[in-house]
């Protein structure tokens, strides 16, 4: 199988051009290629496929083989791949995902894509649609007990479920211990991605993320969007926020008039390769 290793601010995936390649068992392949000792090493597998309704289709699998609906960092790399490898020559493209069609604007420098702005769509705040089990219609700054401690959660779906909680210190958080407690909490029937955020000022938030199916990653695009939305809803920030993640920064803008979230960030090709499955 020919592949390309790419990352969006450290959130790395193995990408396969399914305009040319066929992957028979993507879930099993995702587990194999994601292994950082016996495989290639990644947060998962993303297949770039033809689409009948868009310029291309993104099909993503987490490191544990479970299928994801949407990945903000991943879709920027899909856009870069499609342009850099000649699938498209357009600088404004559409990509089909399990959470709908996303629209992307590409910044091209010296014939290669250097940055991508993605219309991530509207945030979903209704608890039942996220899904999050709650007696209230929305979960905004609600107290929830996790592993014997009370946390205050704001829940948002950006095509996948997120729980955002605010902490004083993200750097010394024992995320390996607490992350799984959130992921498998009975409040979240489909599991959940958890963002531990600290507000620096009205325009800046730092964050670490525990992703369902992958554990801690260096960055999560949908998580950054969810954190920006949660920060606005809680009155912590303005509508345009720089979210600082372990792998780098993402610029997030929640256009509340049209109720769309825009994410801008880099996309990087690491190397091309071939592996026997």
Please report the number of helical segments.
4
Number of strands: 18
Structural class comes to alpha+beta
Q: Helix and strand string, N-terminal first?
A: EEHEEEHEEEEEEHEEEHEEEE
Strand content: 35-45%
Compute the average pLDDT.
97
Shape: globular
Biggest β-sheet strands, sense, barrel: 18 strands, mixed
Helical amount: 10-25%
Radius of gyration: 18 Å
Low confidence ranges: none
End-to-end Cα distance, whole Å, is 7 Å
Could you give a quick summary of the protein structure above?
The chain has 277 residues and is of the alpha+beta class.
Observed structural traits:
alpha+beta; globular; 277 residues; single chain
Please describe what this structure looks like.
With 277 residues, this protein is α+β, with helices and mostly antiparallel strands. Helix content is 16%, strand content 44%. It contains four helices and 18 strands. The protein has an 18-stranded mixed sheet that branches. A hairpin with a 2-residue loop joins strand 15 and strand 16.
